[in-house]
Design a protein that fits this description.
Helices cover 37% and strands 17% of the residues. The protein is of the alpha/beta class.
Length: 332
């Protein structure tokens, strides 16, 4: 029996001119998630409506604590944080302590967080925001897609209120959790399959483009040169991240994956994309969790995603550093 096709991706509704794009970040902080949160909170092109957390890089308790820590040191207030799913839909949770450390965000010392979570499940918070916001909202998942899949299955009517989903995950080439599969997709392939088949406009920022966002020594020096506590924390995060990437993957400089998805929303010109069909491998003995990207139209499956291919690294780092500068100047 032929595999059912994913629906073609509909066009992304326009955002009114001169208005920031309303977004929700769904994350599992994570060093790169931390910088993604700061970019979203400090750049005027987006309006950060909420931060939701999921198990991934570490357990849900640790990723949620890390989100609170980031908001505390960055002075991010008035943005609700809600904890979501503590495990994938089907398989057991396998965290990435080898990359992010025992805390999920090893490196700098963080004070006790002063920002708390709201007493609401992440999926219910997203649903409430989507139904109550005056315009469609963009979801930016930088983590396993468990929360997003549950949102789309529990509240299918919310799909019409999502402007687009711009995610960090997958790859057009090789993986990083297995030879074939990227971590976020491999952690919950069934959830990713639901999202990729949802018909919601989808942009995929995978390893092939995030590996162009290298935090070189010069980049780290830019954060240190800000002369703020937040700048030093960012430099510390990147320094720890660099050490694990050198040990595990042989990278001289670490790629900062998650902020690339936020940058695509802030300024689409920073991240070039092509249209393609993307499906998630669920059954492969060696390839479970791989994203099968039909870049050359070799199948009859319709386009269901915009796939990021090229990053303007200079413009990307300018936006990230500028956002940290803005937050650091106002942070306690």
């Amino acid at each position: 029996m032929p595999e059912p096709s994913a629906p073609a991706s509909p066009p992304v509704p326009p955002v009114p001119a001169a208005r920031p794009v309303p977004i929700i970040i769904d994350c599992d902080p994570g060093h790169d998630d931390a910088l993604a949160i700061m970019l979203a909170a400090g750049d005027p092109a987006v309006e950060l409506l909420a931060i939701t957390t999921v198990a991934g890089n570490q357990t849900l308790a640790k990723t949620t604590l890390n989100a609170r820590r980031v908001c505390t040191v960055a002075g991010i207030t008035g943005v609700p944080i809600a904890a979501g799913c503590d495990r994938p839909l089907v398989q057991p949770l396998a965290v990435a302590a080898d990359v992010h450390g025992a805390s999920g965000m090893d490196g700098p010392a963080f004070p006790e967080p002063t920002v708390d979570v709201v007493p609401e499940h992440a999926v219910d918070l997203m649903h409430r925001i989507l139904t109550g916001h005056p315009e469609p909202v963009t979801l930016v998942p930088t983590a396993p897609l468990t929360n997003i899949a549950l949102l789309l299955t529990r509240y299918p009517q919310d799909a019409a209120r999502i402007r687009e989903i711009v995610l960090m995950g997958g790859s057009t080439e090789r993986g990083n959790r297995t030879p074939a599969a990227e971590f976020n997709i491999r952690t919950d392939p069934e959830a990713a399959d639901i999202v990729f088949r949802s018909g919601v406009p989808l942009t995929v920022c995978g390893l092939n483009v995030t590996h162009q966002a290298l935090a070189t020594h010069e980049v780290v020096a830019r954060f240190e040169a800000l002369g703020t506590g937040l700048g030093r924390i960012c430099a510390g995060l990147l320094t720890f991240f660099a050490s694990t990437y050198r040990e595990l993957y042989g990278f001289p400089d670490p790629p900062l994956h998650d902020p690339v998805a936020v940058a695509r929303v802030i300024d689409p010109g920073i991240v070039q994309c092509v249209d393609a069909n993307v499906v998630v491998e669920l059954a492969g003995r060696y390839t479970r969790g791989a994203t099968v990207v039909d870049l050359h139209g070799r199948t009859d499956r319709p386009v269901n995603a915009r796939v990021a291919t090229v990053l303007d690294a200079d413009r990307f780092w300018d936006r990230v550093v500028a956002a940290v500068r803005v937050l650091g100047a106002a942070a306690p």
